[in-house]
From TrEMBL:
This is NADH-quinone oxidoreductase subunit I. It catalyses: a quinone + NADH + 5 H(+)(in) = a quinol + NAD(+) + 4 H(+)(out). It comes from Falsibacillus albus. NDH-1 shuttles electrons from NADH, via FMN and iron-sulfur (Fe-S) centers, to quinones in the respiratory chain. The immediate electron acceptor for the enzyme in this species is believed to be ubiquinone. Couples the redox reaction to proton translocation (for every two electrons transferred, four hydrogen ions are translocated across the cytoplasmic membrane), and thus conserves the redox energy in a proton gradient. SUPFAM superfamilies: 4Fe-4S ferredoxins (SSF54862). GO terms for cellular component: plasma membrane. It is a peripheral membrane protein. [4Fe-4S] cluster 1 binds at C46, C49, C52, C98.
Length: 139
């Protein structure tokens, strides 16, 4: 009998407390500032140094470039930049090593798709991924 009254007292006491659940699809979750989400890519900043592709532990980044068509300018111009989010572990190493900050992490984490083929994102999609860019990375 004592256990039943303790349980009832605990239940009644917690009915008046503030709820800790969220109405997730309708109400965004509060995320910390340093949350590592999907990357945003700035193709105009990229110098095609391949540091991000070389440091990636899962080899999910592919980056290709070509010689600059303007003979007065040296360096390379980005041709393709693809990330396979099927195997990306969002480790933030690609953003840490980028010398020009062409790739930054966002707070966006929603990448649910019906097909694995849709998890392969190109530079156009990554450039348009402007939702929830971290405060320190806003341009």
């Amino acid at each position: 009998m004592l256990g039943w009254t303790k349980g009832l007292a605990f239940t009644l006491k917690n009915l008046t407390k503030e709820k800790v659940t969220y109405d997730y699809p309708n109400e965004p979750l509060p995320l910390p500032d340093r949350f590592r989400g999907i990357q945003k890519f700035y193709p105009d900043k990229c110098i095609v140094c391949n540091l991000c592709a070389n440091i990636c532990p899962t080899d999910c980044i592919s980056l290709t470039g070509k010689a600059n068509p303007d003979p007065e300018k040296k360096g390379k111009v980005i041709d393709t930049y693809d990330i396979n989010f099927e195997i990306c572990i969002l480790c933030d190493l690609c953003t840490e090593v980028c010398p020009t900050e062409a790739i930054v992490m966002t707070n966006n984490f929603e990448l649910a798709e019906y097909s694995r083929d849709e998890l392969f994102k190109d530079k156009v999609w990554l450039d348009e991924n402007d939702t929830s860019v971290r405060k320190e990375n806003k341009v």
